[in-house]
Design a protein that fits this description.
The chain has about 350 residues and is an alpha/beta fold. The protein has two domains: about 170 residues, Glycogen Phosphorylase B (Rossmann fold, 3-Layer(aba) Sandwich); about 160 residues, Rossmann fold, CATH 3.40.50.2000. The chain has a seven-stranded parallel β-sheet with strand order 3-2-1-4-5-6-7, with helices on both faces. Strands 10-9-8-11-12-13 form a six-stranded parallel β-sheet, with helices on both faces. Helix 9 links the parallel strand 11 and strand 12. Helix 2 crosses helix 3 and helix 9 crosses helix 11. The longest helix is centred in the last third of the chain and has 18 residues.
Length: about 350
């Protein structure tokens, strides 16, 4: 397969971010420049860019009852080139990749980006799954230890991050500093710790606004929690669809308050944007930063430590900006998008050569 055009079908539930930092369509461009012919299938509606013919929506794939029919329809869709290889680029597409691979008798690669997969497990085809791509060394180790995945089957490829140009500071709009966080429903326990820290910050006389962007299903609980703490007027709970360039530009501090292992994709968004950040000392997050150099590291589930870190960053804006700048440069060097594309292309060709 060396030197030949390799047709790869990527599978994703939805876009992994809203601000382009992990734009899958730009990954397609980079793979094309390396001799691949990539397409991507989304299992959710409204995800495929209308102006990119390489992106296709097949929402039936996400439904376990409709999946067999959706698999058959996909292979008869004139827009889909029969691939040489399938790559499920997020954990939730493992069952879809397995169904497509077995139906078409095609090898596939499965990415694992979340520690939560260690609890839910993975269904893999012994015959067709050729490799697992782990998003970090910590995650790779846990796949081997906790799920008994053969070490030789796991490859670590760090996600490529597109580091944008520094955002212009927001002027004439904010009257008080803004501290924000974002994440999924799995991050709610950490959000409650941030709310406790927010109360401590406000009770100590600091004027600060707090923003939590997460799944709509968690809004009522978090708003009720803020009201119960007596800080409801200072806390905005919003849908995670607001995440984008404007969201990052209004933040003075970003908090990643995870209380368990996390690959920290939203933390990487913030670091890539140069937002002064605070992260908890848990597996996954601690490997992303240099404490005191690119972000502050605090104990998990400790609202008092979080309160102190927030106050320290707000009290020394020059030091905070320097922290953010150093974080951007670190992410640019360690999570290079071209290195990711090189590694994926090499992996695809190795898998096909061995197949």
């Amino acid at each position: 397969m060396a030197g030949s055009v390799l047709k790869v079908l990527l599978l994703a539930r939805q876009l992994p971010g809203y601000d382009g930092t992990w734009a899958l369509t730009s990954l397609l461009d980079r793979l094309e420049r390396r001799g691949c012919l990539p397409q991507i299938v989304f299992a959710s509606r409204g995800m495929a860019p209308s102006d990119d013919r390489r992106a296709i929506e097949a929402p039936g794939l996400a439904n376990r009852w409709l999946r067999p029919l959706a698999v058959r329809r996909l292979w008869t869709d004139s827009r889909v080139d029969r691939p040489d290889l399938i790559h499920a680029v997020d954990d939730s597409m493992a069952n879809v990749a397995l169904a497509l691979a077995e139906f078409a008798e095609t090898a596939y690669v499965q990415s694992v980006n979340s520690f939560s997969t260690l609890q839910t497990g993975l269904r893999l085809s012994r015959r067709w799954c050729r490799r697992i791509v782990a998003a970090s060394d910590d995650l790779a180790d846990n796949l081997v230890i906790e799920l008994d995945v053969p070490a030789e089957m796991v490859t670590v490829i760090l996600p490529g991050v597109i580091v944008p140009s520094p955002s212009a500071p927001v002027t004439g709009v904010k009257s008080v500093p803004v501290v924000g966080t974002t994440g999924s429903s799995q991050d709610v326990p950490g959000f409650t710790i941030l709310l406790e820290a927010a109360k401590l910050v406000l009770d100590s006389g600091h004027e600060v606004e707090f923003v939590i962007a997460t799944a709509e299903s968690e809004h009522v609980f978090l708003r009720h929690r803020a009201q119960k703490l007596g800080i409801g007027e200072r806390v905005t709970v919003s849908d995670d669809r607001i995440i984008g360039a404007m969201f990052w530009s209004v933040l003075d501090v970003y908090c990643q308050p995870s209380i368990g292992p996390s690959t920290g994709r939203t933390l990487l968004y913030a670091l890539a944007r140069g937002v002064p950040s605070i992260a908890t000392d848990v597996k996954g997050l601690r490997s992303l930063i240099e404490p005191g150099q690119t972000a502050l590291l605090i104990p998990p589930a400790d609202p008092h430590a979080m309160r102190q870190a927030i106050v320290d960053l707000l009290a020394a804006p020059d030091d905070a900006r320097r922290l953010g700048w150093q974080a951007r440069e670190s992410i640019r060097q360690r999570f290079d998008a071209d290195v990711e594309a090189d590694s994926l292309t090499a992996l695809y060709r190795e898998v096909m050569t061995r197949a």
